[in-house]
From TrEMBL:
It comes from Chitinophaga caseinilytica. It comes from the Bacteria. This is LamG domain-containing protein.
Amino acid sequence: MSRRAGRRCRNTGAVRLPRWKFYGKTTVPEIRMGKNALRLNQGSAVLADANFTNGTISFDISIKQARYFPSIRFRIQGQDDFEEFYIRPHQSGNPDAMQYMPVYNGLGGWQLYHGPGFTNAAPLPFDRWLHVTIVVNDRQAEVFFDDNPEPVLFISKLKRSPAAGMIALTNLAPEDAWYANVSVTPENGLPIKSKPRPVPPLPAGTIAGWEVSSPFPEKLLASETRLSSALHATLSWEKLAADEMGTADLSILHRISKDTNTVFVKTVIHADRDTVRKFAFGFSDRARLFLNGKLLYAGADNFMSRDYRFLGTIGYFDAVWLDLKKGQNEVWIAVSEDFGGWGVKARLE
């Protein structure tokens, strides 16, 4: 991995460098297994002037065998918009031992971005130093552990557009994680060893784009079985394309709040004649589906809603049969969100 050029921020005594700013409950400098380290516990260390787009980020991390999510954030555009790679010590060796996700408007989308290119299995060592290297080039990145020449994760497509930004070490959980020897080397054109697989076209019938409303309170729909103009007359609308997986990430357009955690997404289905068609869909976290103004479905796919192992990841887990009339038919889905990813996908089979 080349480090020939670029400005380097070598951080062997990371916490003493004035460029790092510290936030949160616990950001303590201490000696950890022979290294000058920063202990984070519900805290963050931010390199605000990193101006990092492409290049190499490396650091040592020491973790405990506990349920938490130590991370590195990069290309940070503000408090609520960045790329993030994190590990799950409690999932060591499992398919989601690590994960990449984009963050839009403060909402991490781990329930939307999973599988190849986002998560991978690897053993995570406890109570020793693990060396992590991340090589970033435009829309791709690779993550390496220790001196292994093969990446433990190939991020085949960074979801956010490349833009220079800050870097942060973050551990928001009430467990300790230690960081040391942080090095940031900006450099364009670094080679990526892994080769992306061809992206297949979306299956026929996939809804490739939606009209998305402005947010509103979920409680407004609690007892509604038909859409009245009073429910949506004041809403504004924007278009949002689905990605190569068929998923539309609603947090790209909007942020959630305690009072406004729901949007409508709508699409028009044209039928040449009266017919009944299967409509498979997925969502996070809750959905209410209307056809031509009439409620057909209400359900939840949020974290642990199906059983204690269900993560709330999005997929084609639900379906309804649409009684389509000849001509234009409108499908509206109210999608409500708590945490973990605000999204929808659908296909007419």
